[in-house]
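Contributing new records

If you add data, match the layout below exactly. Sequence lines come first and carry their own label; structure lines follow with theirs. Keep one chain per record. Anything else will be rejected by the validation script.
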Amino acid sequence: CKRGKRWKCSRGYYLRYGYCYRCPKNMYSSGGKSKHCKRCPKGTTVASGKGKSKKSCKRGKRWKCSRGYYLRYGYCYRCPKNMYSSGGKSKHCKRCPKGTTVASGKGKSKNSCKRGKR
């Protein structure tokens, strides 16, 4: 169903006050007359409105970061200026060697740090 349709909702949506609403990110619903969405299991994610069942929840980017980012409390954050990270499940960024610099989020390895002004 689309938002606004009454009484019975499609999977990935929940029923509230007679209207269908999309389940938020990281939540799922079998639709019908469900009045709430269920949270995906820890370590999995699903886009808003795409969670049609528990199987819709997949291990995702939320738990594995791109290079130049670090993982904290289940979310990816950009490494600060003059720091780098290989991504994945790194929980912190490493400082560039003395005399080298890299822009925020661009430090993907020690080799990303180049000589220059800090």
